[in-house]
Write a structure and sequence with these properties.
This protein has one helix and no strands. The protein is rod-shaped, with a radius of gyration of 40 Å. The termini are far apart.
């Protein structure tokens, strides 16, 4: 009887150890999956931040170009006004 109890105890311990190993293996797999997902999220966040920086840089360039266009339009207006005034003064002197 004692031998049977010892064998039963050993069998139960073996099964418990197997279950512990299965759980540990499962935990490690889940940990690896979680790390992979975290890496994916980190990569996506970095890409999004890089895109935002590029967008801001492009928007700044567009704003600068719009300012340059406005300045050129003012210069063109002044040149046009001076040409018109010059033509009027030539006509007046004739």
């Amino acid at each position: 009887m004692q031998l049977e109890l010892t064998q039963l105890k050993q069998e139960m311990e073996r099964r418990l150890n197997e279950k512990d190993e299965e759980m540990e293996s499962s935990r490690k797999n889940q940990q690896r999956q979680l790390q992979a997902m975290q890496h994916t999220v980190d990569v996506e966040v970095k890409a999004k931040n890089d895109q935002m920086k590029q967008r801001k840089a492009i928007e700044a360039q567009v704003d600068d170009m719009q300012g340059q266009i406005e300045e050129l339009e003012k210069v063109r207006e002044n040149v046009s006004m001076h040409k018109h005034a010059s033509l009027l003064s030539e006509v007046a002197f004739e």
